[in-house]
Amino acid sequence: MTDREVQVRRLWQQRPRSTFARVSALLAVLLTLAAWLSSGIDLSDITEPRRVQNIKRFLGEIQPYPNQKNGFHIDATMSWAARLLSEHGLEASRTTLGIAIAAIVLAGAGGLLFIMPSARTVATPEPFGLCGSQTRWRARWAWRLIVMGTRAMLIFARGIPEYIWAYLFVAMLGLGPWPAVLALALHNFGILGKLGSEVVENVPSTVPAAIFGLGSTRSQVAIVSLFPYALPRFLLYFSYRWETCLRDATVLGLLGIATLGRLIMDARAHDRYDEMVFFMLMGAVLVLVGEVITGLARGIVRRSS
Amino acid sequence: MRTKLRLVGVRRGVLLAIGLAGLWAALDLGLDPRDVWPAGGGLKLLGKFLHGAVAPAATYEADFVPDDAESLLVKAGRAALRTLLFAVTAASLSVVIGLGLGFLASTAWWADDPVGAVNVGTRLFRRTVRPAVYVVTRIIIALARSTHELLWAVLFLSAMGLTNLAAVTAIVIPYSGTLAKVFSEMIDEAPRDAAIALRAVGASPMQVYLFGLLPQAIGDLSAYAIYRFECALRSSAVLGFFGSIPTLGYYMRLSFDNTYYHETWTYLYALLALVVATDWWSGALRKRILR
After folding, report:
1. Closest Cα of chain A to B110: distance in Å?
2. Which of A208, A213, A248, A210 is CA-nearest to residue A229?
């Protein structure tokens, strides 16, 4: 064996190995197999003749109503679309947008508040690894409780799907914008809090440690060094979640709140599948516009930092 | 170079814009802070519901329960298992499709190729087909991502009735789109030194991708895939809540509509247990891999 082959073999033997990772991978593969075998999914379902007929009928029904009767005329289609937009479509889109914005701003503000208590590098008696005077186990456990409590709250807020939160709030507050806003704000508060605390934990500790060593309090360190460093990343996550909120705000209308989802539900209840698909497409357009705005904002922030 | 002195810098400007947007939204929707607190019947419901949080049911609350019905905890366990398996089905397929689409939608393995093409045919192929494939894939991804999985489910429900396959497809479509987009961004933003070195030595673009770009991004991608799986757990529950499949959400809604709030909390805690377990697993895996 040549020298090079010996070197390569030694490198291969020294590669980082982890039993945990291997066992996890194996379990994941086994679980996937078990899931697919027991799912009762039959691909021949789609080719069943009655189902194919249903799909064909459906494809016919989602064409705009005037076109179904008289064939494709552009002005009939345009006036049908204009009527849908003016009657409820634009208003519902505005409500959807408003709910998404209000929810994400609330979530962002709340999340920012709780990032510090849940970041392990800050919420300890020895932030950033600096050894203060001898820390008693009482101080250590007090901080640990704060971290665990905040994280438990964040996990609870994000573990429950926003649709279920919204259902609960509608049951308590009736139909209106608040159930949707609260549900989305709560769910995203959990997510942004967790992501934000991870960003703070990954901040390189030289500058914050220096400021803390000068005698600042934790909040001073946070405002001066942690927030400025973490803000671009946090804004990135914020914009991702805003896009998701746009999507979710549309869907929460299925519960009866006055967004595009309610129009979709109404159209479906009246068997007006053409209108249903139209409003679904409107929702998609809203999300695409949101993506464009997010891309622009991200570019601006990236260029400035 | 003189730096411009501004009254409102970019960061403050962005934060200000966000705050103003929030204010506009609140005013346009007519949000009144006093409406947040429920009144009358809603308050009673809130009280009863919160009571269930501290005392989740271990047995059925209904007055009449058939003798051969399984115990509540077994039922919750079975529903949790069904939720888990459904999420695994959807997430596994989404990861596979997302990897493929993400590969086609990333530019790092074919754009600015320093090595010239060998012949006219290859050059033409590289100039026309590859960008076309990239653009088409991006469009497909944007369309797939733009609709929420519940709306896809409503669409399939109306078109062909909601079978298990339709429910899984409803989740797979937006999830593959998101995974593809994030994956392509990770590939494009990963450090390219290894890829450049391999290309200079003469590796083909496929080899550059598999051995130069992919290993750099695989850590982040696994983390995101596990996060997607957690979201799939929630989406499976929500599809059940909506009424199509017998996952935890289905029983949650049933018990809530029957005002058996203690039972609802049992199912909620089961879902939370799944989420917490996935979260713990993700953290543990990340600690070992990023050592």
Report:
1. 23
2. A208
